[in-house]
Amino acid sequence: MIPTSDMVLTQFRKGVVEYCVLACLRSAPAYGLELAERLGTNSSLLTSEGTLYPLLSRLRQQSWVTTTQVASAVGPPRRYYEITDEGRVALETFTTTWSRFTTDVRTTLES
């Protein structure tokens, strides 16, 4: 079987999107829909909100994010996600590794 670009993107997302979420939280806490909008601006990162919330739950279980409920003036309370110190270390490790990895891939593909 010859893979489609969607199949390849699915495999890329599995290892990358959680770190993109952490990067979005690096500067300030955000609620789920806000994160979906940030990631959704580049559709190759997030295909639907339905995939975001289980990922956020996993990040919370790993202690990479914490959550806080905040009242909203226009609806139900919002759950804000904030990166933890452990999450920052995980993001830094990923960033360093990603840089080396993409350089190696680019070099291999161009040879």
Automatic annotation (TrEMBL):
Residues 21-92 form the Transcription regulator PadR N-terminal domain. It comes from the Bacteria. It holds the Pfam family PadR. InterPro entries: Metal_resp_DNA-bind_regulator, Tscrpt_reg_PadR_N, WH-like_DNA-bd_sf, WH_DNA-bd_sf. Coiled coil: none annotated. This is PadR family transcriptional regulator. It comes from Promicromonospora vindobonensis. The lineage of its organism: Bacteria, Bacillati, Actinomycetota, Actinomycetes, Micrococcales.
